Amino acid sequence: MLAAIDLRVYRGPAPVLHGVTLQVDEGEIVAVVGPNGAGKSTLLGALAGCFPPAAGRVMFAGEDVTGTAPETLVRRGLVLVPERRQVFPGLTVRDNLLLGAYHWYRRNKGEAAALLDAVLADFPRLRERIGQLAGSLSGGEQQMLAIGRGIMARPRVLLLDEPSLGLAPKVVTDLFSRFRQLCTRYGTAMILVEQNVRAAFRVADRAYVLERGRVVREGPVEALREDPHVVGAYLGKRLPAALRADAR
Q1: 189-194 and 157-161 beta bridge pairing
Q2: Which of 39, 193, 236, 240 places its Cα 20 to 30 Å from the Cα of 115?
Q3: What are the structural domain ranges in the chain?
Q4: How far apart, in whole angstroms, are the C-alpha atoms of residue 129 and residue 145?
């Protein structure tokens, strides 16, 4: 469905991604995890068309979309939910959600109303606050709003950038528990960029570990949970002596 092939990206004069290759297939949830500064957000921005790659390709639904403008990719179904929510604080919850459908709303207002009702059913807290200004919502509610706005764009692939950032653990657990249901209900695949590796691994099918702009590990989450490097660096477990020796 979506693939990066040997992607190399600069931010200004600084190289950030050094030949990253990954893919997400239809219906999958793929996590991209790693430390601060690893290039995770730059990777999502490059996939979404925000950062033109210096080399490599982005393939979406069988087509080469390298260098395609973000708004064109949104129309095709590649939708980014950015880090730190970035809702419109002076607009209501309803208007924020409808802005997600800006590129098709006027052509089919009936379908937009039906999709809005479905999103509100998935996030009942938003229904309770439908006329409230987005800036007055809690952090968790704003994250629900940002994801709901992304769904209103009718994504084929939804890119989520650090959805757990700044949220209480209970809110993170509740939010992440919805991701599989959302993918199934709306027929979307998902790439989930996260520093909270435990939360990401609970919902993802596969994962890539990104460090210093390079993929250092990849595979099913079940296998990565047992990988000595991933366990030692990200899951905080004490390794058996034999594995500790192997990880050196």
Answers
A1: parallel
A2: 193
A3: 2-247
A4: 10
Which tokens sit at 34?
């790693």
Q: Cα–Cα distance between 125 and 210 in angstroms, integer?
A: 34
Return left, alpha or beta for 155; rule: phi > 0 is left, psi -120 to 50 is alpha, else beta.
Answer: beta
Q: Does domain 2-247 have CATH number 2.40.128.20?
A: no
Per-residue pLDDT of the chain (248 residues; tens, 9 = 90+): 999 999 999 999 999 999 999 999 999 999 999 999 999 999 999 999 999 999 999 999 999 999 999 999 999 999 999 998 899 999 999 999 999 999 998 888 899 999 999 999 999 999 999 999 999 999 999 999 999 999 999 999 999 999 999 899 999 999 999 999 999 999 999 999 998 999 999 999 999 999 999 999 999 999 999 999 999 989 876 544 443 433 33
**Cβ-based neighbour number of residue 60 at 10 Å:** 20
Total residue length of the chain: 248
How far is it, in rounded angstroms, from Cα 37 to Cα 55?
Answer: 20
Distance of CA 108 to the CA centre of its chain: 27
What is the rounded CA–CA span in Å between residue 188 and residue 150? 11
CA dihedral 127, 177, 155, 195 (to 10 degrees): 120
Cα 177 from Cα 228, distance rounded (Å): 27
- Paired sense of beta strands 29-33 and 55-60, if any: unpaired
User: Quick check: helix, strand or coil at residue 208?
Assistant: strand
| Coil, strand or helix at 189 | strand
**Which strand ranges, in their side-by-side order, compose the sheet holding 55-60?**
14-24, 2-11, 55-60, 63-64
Query: Computed over its alpha carbons, how large is the radius of gyration of the chain?
Result: 18
